[in-house]
Design a protein that fits this description.
5-stranded antiparallel β-sheet, alpha+beta, 479 residues, 13 helices
Length: 479
């Protein structure tokens, strides 16, 4: 049964957590769109497509938003309770810090499991859908926008210029259409006026031109006898295909090879398969190099025993005739060049194989590191809030940003050095957790002992000491 103390703490925690989670998620989603905004603008995307994209991006950001929101909300909750002396009242009644942290610890464990579920089950699907949609959006041409007095070249094979366009965006005048082809020169069409409209199925743009001329020249580039044709017309209809302006859905199979699209159950056998493949590649490379060292089987092992003094004076090579020496040198050089080429290829293949293995391992560890980050940042936030005893968004937000930036920097650096092979993958991916866990334990010990570190009194004493030191230094400078 949930006791009144647990209800009190949970009520104080839920509001700040929901608010900080939504704000964190919003910031992370906006970070994605700021990065890709240039490729999305002007594509004529409908609201449903944009909403789907936001949903996929938000799903991928949940595991990163949870640690930040847990850190900030736990600092705010315990800081607010400390500022209103609720923590003092609870401690004076004999309830230790670990006891009233218990309900939030259970909530944090549940949220860590939620973060793992998102990272393992939902994010691979969201990444697959998001990357496929992003690819489709990027390759889609900008929305059709033919402006008066400007050459429009977004249609494949055509350049269009409209002299004037009425407010209804349909009646046009002084139209020039340049048709690109592989012939001697491009075809040209001019008209005094016309009507621009969409076909009923929205698949084509129709130009109905009036009072114009069409100019064509037929012939080959190496033939001087060409035929130039000028055709006049009172009315001429021209259709332009708009299929390239619509976003089409690409097959998702081409994106499934990325390790970000796999779960832990899929990553583990994939990593084993990569190791087996790398072992087979090493065996193949060794077999490819073996023929170049066939002379090892025929080397005269008795030469040193039979001629101990001769070996000191000259090598076996020097005992050969001059004509044989030149042939031997040429064969050795050819063999060395072949060996070098094979080793270069083997080195590149091995480097690529190791990079692929590291990528898969990084994604495997990522499923767990963000869940562990929820627990570690809560372990920092809860005692830190009880120490600083300050609610609101001022001091809690400042400390939350400091610790989250530390976590993010070490997490990014660890992933980068793991990807480059500087350190083992597990060491790089768990670097931020290994650094912040001792900090959390330290703060927990200080909070259990009612330490005043980071409290207002400590900062007041530090400021007072600085004020005493500054006048003395000022007097020394003046003297």
């Amino acid at each position: 049964m949930i006791k009144k103390l647990d209800k009190l703490i949970l009520r104080a925690f839920v509001g700040p957590f929901i608010a900080t989670f939504l704000i964190s998620l919003f910031v992370l989603v906006m970070q994605f769109f700021w990065l890709w905004i240039d490729d999305f603008v002007g594509k004529g995307l409908d609201v449903f497509t944009i909403a789907k994209m936001i949903g996929f991006v938000a799903a991928t950001c949940v595991p990163l938003a949870l640690p930040l929101s847990l850190l900030l909300s736990s600092i705010m909750t315990f800081g607010s309770m400390g500022e209103s002396f609720e923590l003092v009242a609870i401690k004076s009644s004999g309830v230790p810090l670990t006891r009233f942290m218990r309900p939030l610890t259970v909530v944090t464990i549940l949220l860590s499991l939620v973060a793992f579920y998102f990272a393992n089950n939902l994010i691979p699907i969201a990444n697959l859908k998001m990357n496929r949609m992003r690819y489709d959006i990027v390759k889609t041409k900008p929305a059709l926008d033919i402006k008066a007095g400007v050459f429009y070249d977004k249609m494949s094979g055509f350049v269009i210029k409209i002299g004037e366009k009425d407010k209804d965006n349909m009646h046009i005048r002084d139209v020039i259409i340049l048709e690109k082809n592989q012939g001697l020169q491009d075809n040209l069409m001019v008209a005094k006026s016309g009507l621009m409209s969409m076909t009923p199925d929205k698949s084509s743009l129709q130009f109905t031109l009036n009072d114009g001329w069409r100019y064509e020249e037929e012939g080959r580039n190496n033939d001087l006898n060409t035929q130039f044709t000028r055709t006049g017309f009172k009315e001429y209809k021209k259709l332009f295909d708009l299929s390239t302006f619509k976003m089409t859905e690409t097959n998702e199979e081409g994106f499934k090879s990325d390790p970000k699209m796999l779960t832990v159950g899929q990553l583990s056998p994939s990593i084993d398969s990569l190791y087996k493949l790398d072992t087979l590649q090493q065996i193949r490379r060794r077999n490819d190099l073996t023929p170049y060292f066939y002379f090892v089987r025929y080397q005269d092992s008795t030469w040193a025993k039979a001629n101990p003094k001769a070996k000191l004076k000259k090598s076996y090579f020097n005992t050969l005739k001059d004509t044989f020496q030149l042939e031997v040198v040429q064969r050795v050089n050819n063999s060395l060049q072949s060996v070098k080429s094979n080793l270069d290829v083997a080195q590149n293949d091995n480097k690529s194989a190791q990079e692929t293995i590291r990528k898969y391992k990084i994604e495997w560890h990522r499923k767990f590191t963000l869940s562990a980050a929820c627990l570690i940042l809560f372990l920092i936030g809860a005692p830190l809030g009880s120490i600083i005893r300050k609610g609101g968004l001022g001091a809690p937000l400042l400390f939350a940003i400091i610790f989250f930036v530390i976590f993010y920097i070490f997490n990014t650096v660890g992933e980068k050095i793991a990807k480059q092979g500087v350190v083992p993958v597990w060491a790089g991916m768990w670097l931020s957790s290994a650094i912040l866990l001792p900090v959390g334990i330290f703060l927990m010990v200080k909070a259990l002992n009612d330490s005043q570190i980071l409290g207002k009194e400590v900062w007041f004493r530090i400021g007072k000491a600085i004020k005493k030191i500054l006048p003395q230094k000022k007097k020394e400078i003046e003297e």
